[in-house]
Design the sequence.
């Protein structure tokens, strides 16, 4: 605190509280809508107090036991698909990036720099700009409607490799010397020294990549055509394709809450690593 | 990037085994498709893929002459300018006040960061619901105040809707970076200015704002990239690029032309244009990162 300024203090809190409320308002309305019946939601204006149908709406959404004009698929299995995809993408990325960063930093081999720059270039092009041909590759390999097709093309990026490379470069050389003197080979050094040292970076990266994987939309939209392979984000979109009259907004909003809760929980619970992950991956 | 390890392991085969998974994945799912996109952009094929014809630059010339494509460029420019401008200024204000608050700044941070976790498509659905002309809570309030809101018919309203959803989602990201930037400014600088009689307003513009300029510039690039590519879900869920084509940003058009209209050559040419834009943005960003190191 530089100086006492009552007015600015009050203003600060007022602005921040207003900010928090505005940021939270859409989600609050979503939650309220998910506790009403369909009639209560479509009767404008909807009440802004939570209703009494919370349990049955969420049950109807999760199990899919409802009759409606839009998509009535159960959301439970979709959440499982999302979870599996998010885990494969985040853990897969961490695994292959650890290995390749280790190779690039701790070995000298021909074309090392070429490989390095090859990986570097992938940083620049998000999957959105090459969807057409990537789709063709995936369909030629017969990977449509499979977990491999949903996840592997999204693993092909270099962010994580760079993060680990930067980190490995800061690991003191004395550790390698000591490991060698004790007779440890490269893989032993990797397993017992490097991986434990990288655990914070791994946690940070996990949070970022988990959210990235969970929130994918365009790619799953293309490679999935069967209901049992839809991630939850796609499921929501399919429920609203009818128009206001046919859309069961109370179920859609319950599904939206279900789609938001897991990644939001990861961010809030792993806040420390989340902030670190954001700052590190953008460096 | 010049740093190298002094001590290395010796093995002729192990490094290849270690990089094999990464190299395999990026070759199959990155270099091959990117090459295909380049190749296809010089070809024309019918929707069933039975005949392929080499047409040189014709796809690009068609794009240049295609008014809807140029309009989509304009839409994207307006959209990203609004998203970046609003997102950066609102989050700077919030971060400034959060930096001032001594007690509770962690609580505010926690309450502010979670929209980052919301999927763009879900954000689109939520905002669509809030502003739905017939049942939306906010559109009802707007109509009560005599403001005719209809994002389904009015393209300005539709644009406002996707911009709001996009800014809402990105606010937490900008906020975190600004807050970190503000907190890294030495307190002694601000105290010195205060002793010299500079008020909070003057201190902000002469000390904090200039020292934040690297952060602001970085966020500008990130926000433009975000508006260009990561907002597909928002647009598709909230407006489907409509009304007409008035919110069809470039990424949406690549998807629509390639997968709905089945114009593969045209879609590939659009992909190539997008690639050039991303590479240009990335180069700008790296230039800037180098500068920051010398600073």
Sequence:
């Amino acid at each position: 605190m530089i100086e006492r300024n009552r007015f600015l203090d009050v203003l600060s809190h007022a602005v921040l509280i207003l900010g928090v409320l505005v940021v939270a308002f859409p989600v609050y309305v979503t939650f309220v809508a998910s506790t009403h019946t369909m009639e209560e939601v479509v009767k404008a204006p909807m009440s802004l107090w939570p209703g009494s149908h919370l349990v049955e709406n969420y049950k109807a959404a999760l199990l899919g036991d409802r009759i409606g004009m839009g998509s009535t698929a159960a959301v439970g299995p979709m959440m499982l698909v999302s979870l599996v995809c998010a885990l494969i993408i985040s853990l897969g990325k961490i695994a292959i990036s650890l290995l390749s960063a280790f190779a690039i930093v701790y070995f000298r081999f021909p074309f090392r720099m070429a490989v390095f720059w090859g990986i570097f270039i992938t940083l620049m092009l998000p999957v959105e700009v090459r969807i057409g041909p990537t789709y063709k590759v995936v369909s030629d390999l017969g990977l449509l409607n499979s977990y491999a097709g949903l996840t592997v093309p999204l693993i092909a990026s270099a962010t994580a490799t760079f993060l680990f490379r930067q980190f490995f470069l800061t690991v003191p050389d004395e550790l390698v010397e000591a490991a060698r003197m004790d007779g440890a080979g490269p893989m032993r050094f990797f397993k017992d020294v490097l991986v434990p040292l990288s655990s914070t970076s791994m946690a940070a990266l996990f949070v970022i990549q988990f959210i990235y994987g969970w929130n994918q939309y365009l790619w799953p939209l293309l490679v999935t055509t069967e209901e049992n392979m839809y991630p939850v984000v796609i499921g929501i979109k399919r429920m609203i394709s009818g128009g206001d009259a046919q859309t069961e907004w109370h179920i859609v909003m319950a599904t939206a809450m279900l789609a938001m809760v897991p990644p939001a929980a990861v961010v809030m619970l792993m806040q420390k690593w989340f902030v670190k992950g954001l700052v590190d991956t953008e460096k | 990037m010049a740093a190298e390890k002094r001590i290395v392991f010796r093995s002729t085969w192990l490094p290849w085994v270690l990089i094999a998974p990464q190299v395999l994945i990026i070759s199959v799912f990155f270099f091959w498709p990117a090459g295909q996109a380049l190749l296809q952009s010089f070809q024309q094929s019918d929707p069933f893929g039975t005949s392929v014809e080499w047409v040189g630059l014709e796809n690009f010339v068609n794009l240049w002459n295609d008014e809807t494509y140029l309009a989509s460029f304009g839409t994207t420019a307006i959209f990203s300018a609004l998203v970046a401008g609003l997102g950066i200024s609102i989050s700077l204000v919030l971060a400034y006040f959060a930096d001032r608050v001594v007690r509770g700044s962690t609580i505010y941070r926690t309450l502010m960061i979670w929209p980052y976790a919301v999927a763009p498509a879900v954000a689109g659905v939520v905002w669509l619901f809030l502003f739905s002309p017939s049942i939306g809570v906010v559109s009802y309030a707007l109509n009560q105040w005599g403001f005719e809101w209809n994002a389904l018919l009015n393209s300005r309203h539709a644009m406002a809707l996707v911009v709001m959803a996009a800014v809402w989602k990105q606010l937490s990201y900008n906020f975190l970076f600004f807050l970190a930037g503000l907190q890294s400014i030495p307190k002694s600088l601000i105290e010195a200015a205060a002793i010299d009689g500079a008020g909070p307003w003057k201190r902000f513009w002469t000390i904090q704002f200039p020292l934040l300029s690297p952060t602001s510039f970085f966020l500008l690039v990130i926000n433009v990239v975000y508006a260009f590519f990561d907002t597909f879900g928002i647009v598709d869920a909230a407006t489907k690029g409509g009304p007409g084509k008035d919110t069809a940003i470039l990424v949406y058009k690549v998807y629509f032309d390639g997968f709905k209209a089945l114009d593969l050559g045209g879609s590939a040419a659009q992909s190539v244009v997008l690639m050039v834009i991303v590479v240009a943005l990335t180069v700008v960003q790296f230039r800037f990162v180098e500068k920051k190191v010398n600073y």
About this structure: The first helix of chain A runs from residue 6 to 33.
